[in-house]
Amino acid sequence: MQFARMKVGSQETELRKFERGRWCLAKDSLVKEEPLEVRLRYGPVEQRREQTLAILMRTPGEDEMLVPGLLFTEQLIHRASDILNMRYEQNQTAQPLHGQRIVVELAATHPFPLRAEGPLIAGNSACGICNATVMDQLDRQPAFIPLAGQPTVEKEILLQLPRKLREAQELFGCTGGLHAAALFSPFGKCLQRFEDVGRHNALDKLIGHALRNEQIPLHHRILMLSGRISFELVQKAAMAGIAFICAIGAPSSAAVHLAQTHGITLVGFLKKNSFNLYTHSERIST
Fold first, then answer.
1. Rounded to a whole number, what is the largest CA-CA distance in the chain?
2. In whole angstroms, what is the distance from residue 141 CA to residue 172 CA?
3. Of the listed 24, 127, 190, 246, which one is catalytic?
4. CB 131 within 8 A of CB 207
5. Which residues, including other chains, have CB under 8 Å from residue 77's CB and lie 6 or more apart?
């Protein structure tokens, strides 16, 4: 599937800075945040239909990973081959933020139930499950059952991950405004990482990359997150078969409950010399 990829990056802005008791002119690098309308074409060849799936606020440049990852974690597709192609299309209604539209062609044989009107997902850079309309939608059952006791990770390896993640965050170094999601091996090697203004977008990009490269389920990988652990991040990780999640920040109560229910090891407040272990301690070697 060919796809024209945009450059991921930042943009400079001029500002007034107050420092050491005085004002001065300065420049700053801002992370890019732009809207993306995701439209789906689906149905039999002779009866193709098109409808908006979502309008996302995201950091542009890796939409070819973001969109498949979103569709997969929302259980709207099950494999990369469910998508025939993706293409950008001019959006006549996009106003001041220069929004873009991406059209996703689904396989004609792929069933896809849509509502009559409106986007299925009303998302932004802070919310990853804004499409959930009833409570029982929040606890989706993943297709992959975690392997018992795998992966096994040494404590010393875990303590190295914050530094390694920070070293891999290229855009964060110049903007300070991006979340990151990274996959590590049980031996602490960074295998892949993605950044985005939205923490759930970064994870969707990571999972979309794995989906396109036929690496799912990610049973033997560690997911490292740059911020807090929210419910939807655990849910998305579970959809991809990830059984080990750790993060710099704190988990929510719902995140801990979901991790416990799905057999996922959850580590929070991970620093160079300490961490909190919330669920399924059997995957950390003593």
1. 69
2. 34
3. 127
4. no
5. 68, 71, 83, 106, 110
Confidence band, pLDDT 50/70/90 cuts, at residue 127: low
What are the pLDDT digits (tens) for 248-267? 999 999 999 999 999 999 99
Rounded Cα gap, residues 238 and 203, in angstroms: 12
> Where do we find the tokens 């060919």?
2
Task: Output the CA–CA distances (angstroms, integers) from residue 69 to 74, 163, 285, in the order listed.
Answer: 8, 26, 31
Q: Kindly report the pTM of this predicted structure.
A: 0.86
Is 127 a residue of the active site?
yes
Contacts of 271 (CB under 8 A, 6+ apart): 159, 162, 248
Domains and CATH numbers, the chain: 34-137 (no CATH), 153-285 (3.40.140.10)
> Token digits for 212?
């396109």
What's the distance, CA 95 to chain centroid?
Answer: 26
Q: Strands, E, within the chain: which ranges?
A: 10-19, 22-31, 34-42, 49-58, 83-89, 100-106, 153-154, 179-184, 190-196, 222-225, 244-247, 265-268, 276-279, 284-285
DSSP 107: -
Q: Which residues are 26's β-sheet partners?
A: 15
Q: Exposure of 134 by Cβ count < 10 A (0-12 exposed, 13-18 middle, 19+ buried)? A: exposed
Task: Give the pair of three-digit tokens for residue 249.
Answer: 């920040």
Residue 94 vs residue 148, higher pLDDT: 148
